Amino acid sequence: MSTTYLDYSFYNLLFRLPVNIQDRKTSVATWLGSRIILFYLRLRIQELVKQCYPTKIERADDWLINEMLRASYDPGVPVVLESIFSFNLSIPLNYLLEDVKENVIIIQGMKDPISDSNATVAMLKEHCDGVIIKKIDAGHCPHDEVPELVNSIICDWIHRVESNILAGFSE
C-alpha cells in the first residue's frame, strides 16, 4: 500500500495529511463539514472553553486556550472531526461494560454545556448496570475545573476496588 499526500488549503491554512487512499474514504459533505467545524472552533475557542468551566472560569486561562488552539493544527484533527459525521458504535456501551461492573467510575460534571448531563447519567444508569457514577458541580472538564474533588473521588474509588479485590483473595 502506498501513502499519498493530499494537499488542501482552507482560509490560507495548509495541511499535509498522509492518507492511505484505499483504506480511507469520506464523502464531500463529511470532509467539508469537519473543516467548517474546525474553522468555527478556532474562531470561538476562548468563549467555548470558558463555557466548559462554569464554576471556576479562571481555570480556562490563556495558557490552556493557546494549547488547545495549537493542538487544533495537528494534521490529524480534521480526520477526528470527520468521525463526528460517521460515528458508528456497532457494539452497545452496556455490552462493553457488562463484565467490569464496579470497576468503572464515571465522574460527570452536571453543568457540562456540551452534553445533557442529566440525560447522560440517566442513560448510563439504565444501560450500564453496576457502573459507579459520581455527579459533581462542574462543567465538561471536572478533572481540571475541580481537581481536588475529582482526585478525592478517584482515590476513594481505587481504595474500594482494591479492598474488594483483596477481600476476594482472602475468601
Automatic annotation (TrEMBL):
SUPFAM superfamilies for this protein? alpha/beta-Hydrolases
**Name this polypeptide is given:** Uncharacterized protein
Instruction: Tell me which species this is from.
Output: Pisum sativum
InterPro entries per the UniProt record, alphabetical: AB_hydrolase_fold
| Superkingdom in the source lineage | Eukaryota
